[in-house]
Specification:
By secondary structure, the protein is α/β, with parallel strands linked by helices. The radius of gyration is 20 Å and the shape is globular. It has nine helices and 15 strands. The strands form three sheets. Strands 3, 4, 5, 6, 7, 14 and 15 form a seven-stranded mixed β-sheet that branches. Strand 9, helix 4 and strand 10 form a beta-alpha-beta unit. The structure holds NADPH dihydro-nicotinamide-adenine-dinucleotide phosphate (NDP) and ligand LAUSZ7GD. The site of the ligand CCCCCCC/C=C/C=O has 9 residues, from loops.
């Protein structure tokens, strides 16, 4: 019999999550029945959505939600899944779990041995797909346009900027430290600035693109988005992807309000959730993997060692300690 370690939400987050909001437990797993398989998590993802989704979907005592666990099959009574195969699953913060195979995604057959499997949680996984859908389907980016992205050195933002360059656009990004800004320049951003240290966000946005922005991929919301909307060009498009600046608010932020710039510049603004675009998954993963293998799409991972450190990795990511995709190596 295998005993799994799991992290549960002990106490609903109030403001910023803290270590005492989590509790690690041990769960004995049953023996496998025919058709089932036992999986071991190798890498786990920590993502911003866990913060707002915990409030909306979870109750205290539930296992922490967690998507895209790159896992290894250790025992199988299901002929469709061989022992040793790696898959992506959506089973929360657990070291081991049992599946009937229906909720598992195999890595693409063309996945080379040399490529970290953890990329299936980041650049070639859900965050990469988010960038792909947001740029190509929501912003409908065209060559020659100027694209703005915030949280640009993170899992989604770093892919957004590079896909925009692949698509022939000028790219402006911002991030919360000088070393992140240097990284953005290194991976091909045309302009980048540290939103925490510029004297004026308004000035920084104007200086980076005096003519304004055709596309704005918004990962942050709040004050940044309120200022950026005034820098959109006529008929600009805004992909509302995330609002991380608001996830830990106990009291909702108030305006400024967006109607006037929306009207004057005839802007389009559309929120989206990547999982609703699952019909683009196969095409998107294939394209992302190809660009990674061609060296056109660079990646960086912030790897935290040990399952015991899941809460620290999650809290650290919310604080901006990650460069690229934050993952935990079990
Ligand atoms: N709509 C969808 O389907 C999806 C939406 N998302 C959203 O995309 C965004 C990025 O996610 P992801 O790439 O996984 O995460 P990241 O890897 O970008 O990590 C989060 C980053 O957000 C930045 N950040 C944290 N707090 C603030 C703040 N108050 N103001 C500005 N920046 C902040 C930090 O970077 P810094 O140092 O630069 O501050 C931090 O590193 C999130 O809002 C997330 O919820 C993600 C996936 C799917
Ligand atoms: C089954 C995986 C679903 C992931 C959806 C993530 C949506 C994120 C929203 C904001 O961060």
């Amino acid at each position: 019999m295998v005993t799994a370690k799991v992290w549960v939400l002990k106490k609903h987050f109030e403001g910023f999550p803290k270590p005492s909001d989590f509790e690690m437990k041990q769960v004995a797993l049953a023996n496998l029945k025919d058709g089932e398989l036992l999986l071991e998590s190798v890498f786990l993802s920590v993502d911003p959505y866990m913060r707002p989704y915990s409030k909306r979907d979870m109750k205290e005592g539930d296992v922490m939600i967690g998507t895209q666990v790159a896992s290894r099959i250790v025992e199988s009574k299901n002929p469709a899944f061989a022992v040793g195969t790696f898959v992506v699953a959506n089973r929360g913060w657990r070291t081991h779990f049992i599946s009937d195979g229906k909720d598992l995604n195999l890595l693409p057959a063309s996945w080379p041995e040399s490529l970290p499997k953890s990329l299936a949680l980041g650049t070639v996984g859900m965050p990469g797909l988010t960038a792909y859908v947001g740029l190509f389907e929501i912003c409908k980016m065209k060559p020659g346009e100027t694209v703005l992205v915030n949280a640009a050195a993170g899992a989604v933002g770093s892919v957004v900027g590079q896909l925009a360059k692949i698509g022939g656009c000028k790219v402006v990004g911002c991030a919360g430290s000088d070393s992140k800004v240097a990284y953005l320049k290194n991976i091909g951003f045309d302009e980048a600035f540290n939103y925490k240290t510029v004297a004026s966000l308004d000035e920084a946005l104007r200086k980076a693109s005096p003519d304004g922005y055709d596309c704005f991929f918004d990962n942050v919301g709040g004050e940044f988005a309120s200022i950026a909307i005034n820098h959109m060009k006529k008929f600009g498009r805004i992909a509302v992807c995330g609002a991380i600046s608001q996830y830990n608010d106990s009291v909702p932020q108030k305006g400024p309000y967006i109607q006037i710039p929306m009207i004057f510049n005839e802007l389009s603004m559309k929120g989206f959730i990547v999982s609703s675009w699952h019909n683009h998954r196969e095409e998107g993963v294939k394209a992302l993997l190809k660009w990674v293998l061609e060296g056109k799409l660079k990646y960086h991972e912030q790897v935290t060692e040990r399952f015991e450190n899941m809460p620290a990795a999650f809290i650290g990511m919310l604080k901006g300690e990650n460069l690229g995709k934050a993952v935990v190596k079990v």
